[in-house]
Amino acid sequence: MLPTHWEAVKTIYEAGIATGQATFQESAPPWAAWDKAHLAKPRLVATEGPDVLAWAALTPVSDRCVYAGVAEVSVYVAEKARGRGIGKQLLQALITASEAENIWTLQAGIFPENLASVRLHLLCGFRVIGTREKIGQMKGHWRDTLILERRSRIVGLAQ
Predict the structure, then answer these.
(1) Nearest-angstrom CA–CA distance, 78 and 51
(2) 43-77 pLDDT, tens digit each
């Protein structure tokens, strides 16, 4: 993902926000804020010709050094590209790229109602480790999130 992809990435993100099933965020931030909040690598886009169909990126879970290898996953697929396996390919590429960056744990917080996202993460080796009940409010209603985790089989292994 390059800064030149931002407008297309932002459009896909805003469409996800509009579903009410993808994130607690109410709007997409400006590029500078998004850029600052996400790890520099890996950031991926799936394209078809000049069109960005999906994107994936990682957010650090903490600035404490002991958590340097733990990141939260974001994967968003444009509505017109859903059901084509693009999300799975992108998430698998993100996993591989994250391991190249010495990340040993990926986590995702997903609304339980977002069955497609839960299924995608499970297909890519994540496991549900719990439910965060009433973790945040959305439009005045408490929402739960499932916490999913994927541990690398090659990075961060005990020696």
Answers:
(1) 10
(2) 999 999 999 999 999 999 999 999 999 999 999 99
Q: All domains of the chain, ordered by start, with CATH?
A: 3-151 (3.40.630.30)
Counting beta carbons within 10 angstroms of the beta carbon of residue 3, is it exposed (0 to 12), middle (13 to 18) or buried (19 or more)?
Answer: exposed
Cβ-based neighbour number of residue 48 at 10 Å: 13
- CA distances for 157 relative to 8, 22, 102, 148, angstroms: 37, 32, 11, 19
Backbone φ and ψ for 111, nearest 5 degrees, come out as -60, 135
96: tokens are 């591989």
Nearest Cα neighbor of 131 from 117, 113, 145, 120 is: 145
Q: Which of 61, 47, 78 is nearest to 149 (CA)?
A: 61
Q: What is the mean pLDDT of residues 7-28?
A: 94
